[in-house]
Write a structure and sequence with these properties.
Layout (H helix, E strand, L loop, with lengths): L3 E6 L3 E7 L4 H6 L1 E11 L4 E4 L5 E8 L1 E6 L2 E6 L3 E5 L4 E5 L5 E9 L2 H10 L5 E2 L6 H14 L6 H18 L4 H24 L6 H7 L4 H12 L3 H19 L4 H7 L5 H10 L1
Helix pairs in contact: 3-4
């Protein structure tokens, strides 16, 4: 299905966007488009989001504003780019120097690992490309053109363009001074995540996890969310529900049996958690 195009002239922003519906094949196998567009602020405004299965990349074409991610503020001006995991709490607001933005929302089965690598290499929420934004801006424009076309290989073409965009973003992510700290933190957390992956069937409490890895539970909770864009409980839920979906699809076991095997001893709680997820 081609993207639906919208033009809006409101009291706050003037925008043009394409909301795209990827195929089931794209959602399962590719990096796929969710939305692409441009906006011009008519007056200072703020947009807030969190808990979205999406990644946002945007370019400040003119004007200035502020990007806030997990309570940290980053001043942005013309030529700056932002790259955010939308599972994290974030917002962006225009200053009185009203900005014009070009953006793309996208997702895919491999995006969590790609973004983790981006952050590990020292990639920032806000950065300024070494060679300017023209190439990245052109890629986003081409994504919009393909999304609104009737091409029968739209999803493959968009996947290729998003991969090209990510390659350009990654090329600008190398910050050696930040890389060392990120790598050490990632190595510490990998052991925690591996433990969760292997023991999700058990009742895992934050206090026990902190004691096992000799780390403050408050610091552990903070850096885990910072690194992976979700809480420890949120990550456990993702692992458990993913396992449950496999059992539900490929076995004829009872809900009680599947729930217990995925860490839910109360079948009613299992059903509620599954529906919520």
């Amino acid at each position: 299905m081609a993207g639906n195009q919208f033009m809006s002239d409101g009291d706050i922003v003037r925008s043009q966007r394409i909301i795209y519906t990827p195929t089931a094949f794209a959602r399962s196998n590719l990096i796929y488009l969710q939305e692409v567009g441009e906006l011009s602020a008519i007056r200072p405004h703020e947009s807030k989001r969190n808990g979205l299965s999406s990644y946002l990349f945007f370019i400040v074409k003119s004007g200035s504003g502020t990007l806030t991610v997990e309570g940290k503020e980053f001043e942005m001006s013309s030529g700056d780019c932002g790259f955010v995991n939308c599972m994290q709490s974030y917002s962006h607001r225009s200053s009185s120097d009203l900005w014009r933005l070009q953006w793309v929302h996208f997702y895919g089965y491999s995006m969590d690992g790609i973004y983790e690598k981006y952050r590990e290499r020292g990639g920032e929420f806000r950065f300024r490309p070494v060679d300017g934004c023209e190439n990245l801006s052109g890629i986003i424009s081409e994504i919009g053109r393909i999304a609104s076309s009737e091409s029968y290989i739209r999803d493959m073409e968009i996947n290729g363009l998003l991969s090209l965009m990510l390659t350009e973003i990654m090329r600008n992510s190398w910050n050696p001074e930040r890389h060392g700290n990120e790598l050490a933190k990632r190595n510490d957390l990998r052991a925690v995540r591996d433990y969760l992956d292997e023991n999700y069937k058990n009742n895992i409490r934050l206090d026990d996890l902190a004691a096992k890895f000799y780390i403050s539970k408050y610091y552990l909770a903070h850096i885990f969310k910072e690194q992976y864009g979700t809480t420890i409980n949120g990550y456990l839920t993702q692992v458990r529900i993913t396992s449950a979906k496999k059992h539900l699809r490929f076995s004829d076991r009872s809900l009680e049996s599947i729930g217990a095997d995925c860490g839910y001893n109360d079948v009613n709680y299992f059903i509620r958690a599954f529906k919520k997820s």
